[in-house]
Write a structure and sequence with these properties.
The chain is an all-alpha fold and 113 residues long. Helix content is 70%, strand content 0%.
């Protein structure tokens, strides 16, 4: 993977987190209203709409490639990765159940990130 400099990236850290949470929301094949509201409350309606439109326009491979594109800049350390995984974990718990599919997605993201 090519090294990408921060100034070459289009998204802010918050936009990347918003995109990641949208991606994680589909882990159990159901993007709940609680999950949507959590993302909007955290990152704002405008960011949510922008990142959701981008997400919808990409295939799965492109989504994962996009997430990895930001790895060296926005989550290069174990601590920063932990912060991101903590946000995803909160998202998985917002609807009251942490499903087996969500746990599988968390394991995948832990390895991916």
């Amino acid at each position: 993977m090519d090294i990408i400099k921060k100034e070459e990236l289009d998204w802010s850290y918050e936009e990347l987190l918003c995109f990641l949470l949208i991606h994680a929301s589909y882990a159990d094949m159901e993007f709940t209203e609680d999950e949507k509201h959590m993302i909007i409350n955290k990152y704002g309606h405008k960011s949510y709409e922008k990142m959701n439109d981008i997400y919808d326009g990409l295939g799965e491979y492109e989504r994962l490639a996009t997430i990895l594109k930001y790895k060296g800049v926005y989550y290069p350390t174990v601590d920063r990765k932990g912060e991101i995984l903590n946000e995803i974990s909160k998202l998985f718990e917002v609807d009251g159940s942490y499903s087996k599919l969500e746990k599988t997605q968390m394991n995948f993201l832990n390895k991916l990130l």
